[in-house]
Amino acid sequence: MVEDVVAAVHDRVVRPLLLAGRAAVFGIVIAAMTLVLGVLLAIAVVRLLDNYAFGHRVWASDALVGGVITVIGLAAWSLRRPRGADRSRT
After folding, report:
1. What is the per-residue pLDDT for 82?
2. What pLDDT does residue 88 have?
3. What is the domain partition of the chain in residue ranges?
């Protein structure tokens, strides 16, 4: 009887908590890897543009990559949606 109670508690309480914790950890790891990959990609693009496109003018490479990232950010900002119905008036 005790074994059945422990198994039921494990199935109904502990297992969902373990799954939620596992999902949170994987989400954090994926977000961190995405951030690192984005930074490394931006650095690689700046270095490639600096060496092959702009003749060792780093400011031009930085300006181009910064402009592209800014345009992407502005596009994402324009597509945002309000969270609640209260904010739909703004």
Report:
1. 81
2. 53
3. 2-81
Residues 6+ apart with CB under 8 A from 61: 45, 46, 47, 49, 50, 53, 54
Grouped pLDDT means (10 residues each) for the chain, 90 residues: 90 92 98 97 94 92 95 95 65
Which residues have a Cβ under 8 Å from the Cβ of 57 and sit 6 or more positions away?
50
Neighbour-count burial of 78, counting CB atoms closer than 10 A to its CB (0-12 exposed, 13-18 middle, 19+ buried): exposed
Which pLDDT score, from 0 to 100, does residue 10 have?
A: 87
Q: How many CB atoms lie within 10 A of CB 61?
A: 20
> What dihedral angle (degrees, nearest 10) is formed by the CA atoms of 14, 17, 19, 23?
-160
Q: What is the pLDDT of residue 18?
A: 94
E runs forming strands in 9-82: none
> Among candidates 46, 47, 36, 90, which has minimal Cα distance to 69?
46
Asked if 16 and 35 touch (Cβ cutoff 8 Å), the reply is no
